[in-house]
Amino acid sequence: MNEFEIDKKQVRRAFSRAAQNYDAAAVLQREVCTRMLEKLSCIKLQPSRIIDVGSGTGWGTRQLGERYQKTDIMALDIAIGMLQAARGTSNWWQKLFAGKRESFVCADVEALPIAANSVEMVWSNLALQWCNDLPSTFVELKRVLKVEGLLIFSTFGVDTLKELRSAFSEVDGYNHLSRFIDLHDIGDMLVGAGFADPVMEMERITLTYNDVRAVMQDLKSIGAHNATAGRASGMMGKSAWQKITENYEKLRRDGKLPATFEIIYGHAWKPAPKKIQDGRAIINTDFKI
Q: What's the pLDDT score for residue 239?
């Protein structure tokens, strides 16, 4: 068993439960989304169809709709509760998508129910960290893109919640946080999936809290529960929680406890198939069983 394998049923339940209060707590998600949107100013692509992978309650989907006012946008999320919350704000959907097709799809990004070569842009803000097989996920995202289509995403890097990870260390033998992937490895995965011209960037954003419980409550409010196979099955004991608090308190600075998030940004293009001299396309038939 892979102790860091994500339990997708747990992820669905957690995010569905968090949907109604998600927007009030998702400060980091909105900030990262805003920074991603700024990166689009350097991209000339005018897509006719976009998939927002991990759309949540639809805040980012709305921003994309305002930017690309003639574009059909599909909001796709693994949690039905998130999509229900997005559809519940029907007035803005009716105004924003007047004359356009709107769609909401509940699906896992690792197995998209979408036709190949059907969209010009795949957008994903802080969702890919919930994938169990990121290399295969990039292959799947490339499949649905048209030639010269764009994948643009953000995800968490290895230093995310390093303070909390340190506080949990040596408390017990269970996983308490997901394992995140290094920026350079993600770039290699994009190339391995057949994407062209990948651009990778990283920055760290630090949020501050009054106490450890506030950190944990923030994570709970956005549905970011520990969903790994190696998590503990029961409640944490009082002595373990006291040890975690003591460990975290050692990191207090200027009266606040820090929580670091390493944000990885990436974008890459789906290239045209390579051709030999007589114009025939080269098809890669390598596969693994």
A: 84
